[in-house]
Write a structure and sequence with these properties.
Blueprint lengths: L2 H35 L1
Length: 38
Amino acid sequence: MDRVTAIRGQALLLQMRWGAGLLAMTLFQIASAWWSWT
């Protein structure tokens, strides 16, 4: 496995982690807003 592939893989993993984190935060915000409304 060469350097470029490793760096690309790492970047992709980081991006996926960011995406998952953002999704979780968004869902959490929606849930808390929904709880406060009902």
